[in-house]
Amino acid sequence: MLWQVDPSADAPLYEQLAASVRAEMAAGRLARGERLPSAKEVAAALDVNLHTVLRAYQLLRDEGLIELRRGRGAVVVAERPPEQARLTELLTELRYEARRLGLTDHDLATLILEGRTP
Fold first, then answer.
1. Average pLDDT rounded to a whole number, residues 3-30
2. What's the CATH code of the domain at 89?
3. Do 91 and 48 touch, CB atoms closer than 8 A?
4. Average confidence score pLDDT of the chain
5. Which range marks the domain in which residue 101 is found?
6. How far is CA 47 from CA 24, 29, 52, in A?
7. Which of 42, 55, 67, 90 has an alpha carbon within 20 to 30 A of 5's alpha carbon?
8. How many domains does the chain have?
């Protein structure tokens, strides 16, 4: 599995890690039942804090994509259509870009729904 993080990017590292997993699912390289590397392994390989990886795994769990099992680690539980996984990635990027520009989530929703700036 290809893990990618860019410390200079606007998106937090945990979001970038979660996006890597979503991208692997969307590309069909990560399927239901497969185990993700341990958080310790990912943290060591990317030289990031263990809690950063755990936060990414918790985010993916909250999205219903993985299950965190004591003694077994993180296991993919969802078979998500590629379009939906890609849409989640794009929405995450859009939210961070909006925040960078000083827009709130409400402002962004208004922009999307009405096609105009708030």
1. 87
2. 1.10.10.10
3. no
4. 86
5. 13-114
6. 21, 24, 10
7. 67
8. 1
Asked if residue 101 belongs to a domain, the reply is yes
Give residue-wise pLDDT tens across range 44-69. Answer: 999 999 999 999 999 999 988 999 98
Residue 19 within a domain:
yes
SS (H, E, C) the chain: CCCCCCCCCCCCHHHHHHHHHHHHHHCCCCCCCCECCCHHHHHHHHCCCHHHHHHHHHHHHHCCCEEEECCCEEEECCCCCHHHHHHHHHHHHHHHHHHHCCCCHHHHHHHHHHCCCC
Distance CA 115, CA 30 (A): 36
pTM: 0.70
Per-residue CA distances from 22 to 59, 71, 88, 99, 116 (Å)? 11, 23, 8, 22, 30
